[in-house]
């Protein structure tokens, strides 16, 4: 299954940049990944780790500041900070003012880090096209300006 997920990683960028249909985009993505699956897999894992790390750094930094200032946390400060840094799932549905504040903090962190994956995969798509097909963005821009 992981093989297909990486093989179809460029599905979105192919549809957006090359204007192909769904089936053609999946096939095109497999063609682009062919021969460089391991490299692309490693880069996608790095992008996902960067996304998750930024999410937790932003959310926990604000959470620690809020815990130290006494805005959130029923128990001791160290217990609250320990809860913030645990990577296990916690139910953050707002049931009190404290959880509402933390919910908003993590929602803001998610809104900031969500584009990291999309930007990373799109840049990887253009990198693969440049390496495999000699596709040069600057040449494409020049050609489109000459047509106007």
Beta-strand percentage range? under 5%
Oligomer: single chain
Radius of gyration: 21 Å
Structural class: mainly alpha
Q: How large is the count of helical segments?
A: 7
Report on the structure:
It contains seven helices and no strands. With 148 residues, it is mainly α. The longest helix is centred in the C-terminal third of the chain and has 37 residues, at 97-133. Helices cover 78% and strands 0% of the residues.
Topology:
Blueprint (H helix, E strand, L loop, with lengths): L1 H6 L3 H8 L3 H12 L3 H32 L8 H9 L11 H37 L3 H11 L1
Structure characteristics:
single chain; 7 helices; 148 residues; elongated; mainly alpha
Summarize the structure.
With 148 residues, the chain is mostly helical.
